[in-house]
Structure formats: structure tokens, C-alpha cells
Amino acid sequence: xxxxxxxxxxxxxxxxxxxxxxxxxxxxxxxxxxxxxxxxxxxxxxxxxxxxxxxxxxxxxxxxxxxxxxxxxxxxxxxxxxxxxxxxxxxxxxxxxxxxxxxxxxxxxxxxxxxxxxxxxxxxxxxxxxxxxxxxxxxxxxxxxxxxxxxxxxxxxxxxxxxxxxxxxxxxxxxxxxxxxxxxxxxxxxxxxxxxxxxxxxxxxxxxxxxxxxxxxxxxxxxxxxxxxxxxxxxxxxxxxxxxxxxxxxxxxxxxxxxxxxxxxxxxxxxxxxxxxxxxxxxxxxxxxxxxxxxxxxxxxxxxxxxxxxxxxxxxxxxxxxxxxxxxxxxxxxxxxxxxxxxxxxxxxxxxxxxxxxxxxxxxxxxxxxxxxxxxxxxxxxxxxxxxxxxxxxxxxxxxxxxxxxxxxxxxxxxxxxxxxxxxxxxxxxxxxxxxxxxxxxxxxxxxxxxxxxxxxxxxxxxxxxxxxxxxxxxxxxxxxxxxxxxxxxxxxxxxxxxxxxxxxxxxxxxxxxxxxxxxxxxxxxxxxxxxxxxxxxxxx
Length: 541
Hints:
Elements: H1 17-30, H2 37-70, H3 78-84, H4 103-107, H5 114-128, H6 148-158, H7 163-166, H8 172-184, H9 199-209, E1 214-218, H10 225-237, E2 244-248, H11 253-265, E3 270-271, E4 292-295, H12 327-336, E5 344-350, H13 360-368, E6 372-377, E7 390-396, E8 402-404, E9 407-409, E10 415-420, H14 441-455, E11 465-466, E12 470-474, H15 475-480, H16 502-533
Helix pairs in contact: 1-6, 1-8, 2-8, 2-11, 9-10, 9-14
């Protein structure tokens, strides 16, 4: 008997995060006083945060009830409620929300009072929760003063977003940020600093460099996605995110607040500095060295230069980076914050940095000083705001070998591993207009395995290669190529035409032609016989 499948009723929509956010977007587009893209985005992200933190509070209360019942205590007894629930204390990091900040209060507020109620909720959280202080803009909702019907419709849509329904999303706040960046910010590009790093790309970096303990830094942290994905990998591998101390900096004020909200919601302790500011002109973590650095800086960032940077100590021993774009400024900034004997960094840059003539001398010194460990070119169309292929760089302050995360590493001095993943475009992302491909878990593991095996004791770096995929290269060959880091100069490319047996192919073609001519002659003969049979006497030439 055939298995019955559940069919969707006419007019019924599939509940999905994109569908909900699409409705919210349309409501905001039609609403009066909705404000700019950034103001719309801030309102939506703040609402989503209130929904998530409120749901976590409700879950905490339910867990507390279950615990009391298991201890033989009646949680509905008036005295017990007063003791445990009027001012609950949660051991799992759940925020104890004031009554006015709870989602149950917000969702039941009449429409005409919603704007005021939402701002009251934000103020009460800011007043009572130090970790979230400064995350919200005062008057976010009352200054916009959306019509009661519009704000109510949006709140009702947000109410449908639940981690119980969308728990498969690894970074829901970041996913909402990604959606509104894609749908609202027509002119938002990586050059303008508004971007979001896809989960698979973050996971690739984290899986390769393994930031399992110690300090982790992102100098352009955006919405905090790098930290969240890394924390989840740590939980999967080691089970204790408290072993990581997170540091970051973000230039855009709204994105800085978003990162603080995102990390607080996840219970990840962090130091993002006291304010949003430019990493180049005001390094908020000056003088601090980190075990790991992960970053996705704006590609080819223009307008970063300031004359005050000319004598900046970050350029010491390498020279002043090109003023035309910030690619090498990011590299030198990252290097300046790595622990001198053990720090490891994984970050993304535009492919132009691999052979940029303006940065030739800096690149030469980086290679001579043995700071570059691996260069991995990624497939095109991984990102929302650009379809270009980009490069993952790995810098390592210790290529001499030793123990690392339970593995024994060999001496890799004066070697660089090159990988080219541009042919890995066989995983299209359905329903996306811009991000068209992704890296799956198998592919991510394959890259990490190649890199970790190359590092490991017993591997022969001089003969570590697979054509059209990866190759370990000595510094002498790189010098011979004028210090270029373009992988195609080193990874063997197979001319598949050379695999053809031309003599055999020519014999096959000649035989095919012979058979074709024979069939044509036979067809002509039969046609002539046919005409002769009916007496026309026509000669077929």
C-alpha cells in the first residue's frame, strides 16, 4: 500500500523563516515612518532578539518547574512561586527578564500601546542586564511610531519565529541580518562594510584552524557569526565554550549592537570594546595577542587610509600597506595581534591580494619570514553581496612543529600549502538569488583533512600533491615566481586533451566516415532503382 503524503491545503503557506521575514518586509515597505533600511533592519533585529530572549526565559522557567517537581516541591504553591519565580535565578545563563520585557507581555499588549511597550521592554533590559547594556537605541519604536495595525502585524509575524520550529538554523539572529541585508540593502556591498559570512565558510575556517581553547579575535566581527559558529564547533568537538575568550571590534554602530545581542543570547562572554570604531584608526585591543584570529574583512576596502597611520607600529618590518585598498593592512593588523610563538589566523581576502603588484614587497617579506602557511581559493558565488571567488589565508607563527590539539606536527618551515576549490560548485542553494553554492560537511572535512595531513609528522612535503586540487610548495619555487601566491602557478593542471590516443581516434573517425559513405552510396543506389522501376528515366547525380 502506497504511503500517504501530507498535502498542503489551498491557500496554506509553508511556515519558513524566509516567508515570515518576507511578510515583515512588505509590511515595513508599505508602512508610514518606517525609516531607512538601517532603521527597518534595527527594528526587525530588535524584535527578533526580544522574541528569542523571551522564549529562552520561558524555557528556563519550564526547566525550573521540572526541577522543583523532581525535588518534590509544588511549583504552583503560592509560597514556592514567591520564592522561586518572582525573581528566578537560572544556572544556565538564561536572562531573568523583568515582567515588561517578557515576550508573553509584549504579544498580549494592545496594538495602540505596542510602540511604547517595546521601548519600555528595551529600557528595562538595559537597566537590569549588564551584558546587554548599550545594545539598544533609545526610542527605537516610539520615534518611528508605526501605525498600531502595522506594528501589531509585524509582532504577530515575529511571534511565529521559534527555536522549536527553526532550531536547525545555526545562527538565527545572523540569518535574519543576512535576509534583510539581501532584501533591503540594494546598494550594500562588501566595500561598504555591510556583509554577512555564510555559515559554511565560517565552519570551513574554524574546522581548519581549530580554535578550541584560549583567545579568539575578529577585528571586523560584524554580527558575531564567526564567534557563534566557532562556539558550536567547540561544543561539538570539546563540549565547553567557556574555554574560549572572545574579543572583537566592529566599525558600524548598529552591527556592533547586533553582535552584542547575538553573543549575549548565546551565552558567549565577549569583549567587543566599549564602543564601535574603526580597527585601523582606533585599535580597541592594542597590545593584546591572541591564540586564534578569524576574520572576513571587507574586500578591497577603499577609504581606509589616514595620514596618522603612516608611522603605525603595525607596519614595522613590512612597510606601509597600499593606500588604494586595505587588503594588506588587514593582513598586517592580524599578524600584529597573533601570539608571537603560537598564534594561528584564518581569514578571507579578495583574490587580487595573491599577486598584487603594489604589495609585492610586503608579500615577499611575509613569505621570507615564514608567516604564510596555506592559501586556499574558494568557489565562486558563496556570498550574497558578491559572486567572486575569494581566498582563505592561513598565517601561522609556529611552522616548526610540535604538539597541537593532540596531533604531532612536523617542521613545515619554508613550505606553503596551496589548494584550489574553484571547481567545487556542485552544491547549488535552492531559493537563493545571490548565494548560489555552498560547501557541505564532506567537502569541509576533506579540506581540513588535506591541511592537517600536510602538517602532520611523517608527511613528505616535497611530494604532497594532487593535480588540480592541492600542492605543497617550497619557498625557492615561490621566489622563482616573483613571490606570487596565485595557486595556478604551482598546482599542476592536467591537459585532458593529452589523454586522448590520437591514432586510435583517427582510425575510429576514418572508419565512421567509411561507413557513412557506404550508407550514402547504398541509399543512392536504392533511389535510382526506385525511379527506374516507374519509368521516368531520371538520372540521379
